[in-house]
Amino acid sequence: MSVKDNLKFVMEEIEKAKRHSLTNEDVNLIAVTKNHETDVIKEAIDLGITDIGENRVQELKSKIDELGPIVNYHMIGNLQTNKVKYIYNRVNMIQSLDTLKLAKEIDKRAGSDGIEVNCLIQINIGNEEQKSGIAYEDTLKFIYNLMDFKHISIRGLMAIAPNTDDKQYLRRLFRKMFEMKEKIIKENISSVRMDYLSMGMSSDYQIAIEEGSNMVRIGTKIFGKRIY
């Protein structure tokens, strides 16, 4: 199938899932462009894609250089502190904030420019050793520890679910994420906004939306398998 057909299918599935969601909110689609050429990405942009996500700083920087400001950019992968300088002021959002060390570096860089950097807090919802993200139970403590960083704007939460076919297990994890978002809202923490719950990828985005996600990160279902 073509990118056009794939995108049409994905948008239809998103609309179906919305009808059964906890919130019936609009869903922001982040097209994950890892290892895909800019010509294909431009095709998706021409078809209505407004946001793209990248896992690696080098590739994200390259895409920004090639495509320019025609789309919003999201850093969705593990971000090392020594690479913050390359993208902090060029992205719409960093979705993978998960350590105070990283927050300190983002804040320092943003402060030198007098800007705020939009960030999502990444939670390791499946407690997987190989994945980044803070522990679910540490979320509130982590947020309060971020209060000293005046150049970071917390806009919500992000999670990458385990790779499993157990749909009920995934549903429980996504529901926990939604419950944490609602808990944070009730805390009424100054300067913290829970605008986005970023969860759901090509294999599980429908379940994620049904359980309250309003931002999904989809690559394979749009662009096909990656070219390595």
TrEMBL record:
<dbReference type="GO" id="GO:0030170">
    <property type="term" value="F:pyridoxal phosphate binding"/>
</dbReference>
<dbReference type="Pfam" id="PF01168">
    <property type="entry name" value="Ala_racemase_N"/>
</dbReference>
<dbReference type="InterPro" id="IPR011078">
    <property type="entry name" value="PyrdxlP_homeostasis"/>
</dbReference>
<feature type="domain" description="Alanine racemase N-terminal">
    <location>
        <begin position="13"/>
        <end position="225"/>
    </location>
</feature>
<keyword id="KW-0663">Pyridoxal phosphate</keyword>
<comment type="similarity">
    <text>Belongs to the pyridoxal phosphate-binding protein YggS/PROSC family.</text>
</comment>
<feature type="modified residue" description="N6-(pyridoxal phosphate)lysine">
    <location>
        <position position="34"/>
    </location>
</feature>
<comment type="function">
    <text>Pyridoxal 5'-phosphate (PLP)-binding protein, which is involved in PLP homeostasis.</text>
</comment>
<protein>
    <recommendedName>
        <fullName>Pyridoxal phosphate homeostasis protein</fullName>
    </recommendedName>
</protein>
<dbReference type="InterPro" id="IPR029066">
    <property type="entry name" value="PLP-binding_barrel"/>
</dbReference>
<dbReference type="InterPro" id="IPR001608">
    <property type="entry name" value="Ala_racemase_N"/>
</dbReference>
